[in-house]
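Hey L., structure's done. Input below.
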Amino acid sequence: QKNQEREEETMRKNGKLNTTYMVEMALLIAIILIMAFTPIGYIKTFGLEITLIVVPVAVGAVVLGPTAGASFIQCFGMSAFGAMLLSINPAGTFVVCFVTRLVMGWLTGLIAQGLKKVKALKGASVFIANLCCPLLNTLLFMTTLILFFYQTEFIQGLAKNMKVANPFAFVIAFVGVNGLVEAAACFVVGSAITKALQHSVNK
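Output:
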């Protein structure tokens, strides 16, 4: 009798967890669609174009775990810059535009899970993980871009226009103020959406 009761209790808990996961996934997909097909995904101000496209990846990784974070790489479309890289080196472009973002989402999920296990950081885990996501995105993207494309005529032309003479200076000039503002914006928006999503599901 007791074993049967335990099995029934386990089934109820598993059912509740599956329902919660499906609700969170549905809400997150809705957010992604809104950001993908409306101007919400991009903010233009003071001459800067800030992309928030990394936000769904961060939210998915924090709320649903590393696997979900990695799976939301489809949020990224192929830009004109990416298309140019593809014409130069398809394999390198795959690493720069696909592998790095898969790893970024996965690592963000692992960071979020790890922080939740640290009692002193559990309350701040959402905010720290959402900040790590855009920073990891920039770090991995720029590292692989330099590795695969810095010596190409295309990137050397950009470096010449920016008046920089080495990879480090190129990264600083390429990322610039826009990258810092973008990271801050993604951190704020991603944290807010994550908290709102968690609150909605808990209710």
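The first helix runs from residue 2 to 37. The CA atoms of residues 44 and 87 lie 29 Å apart.

-- N.
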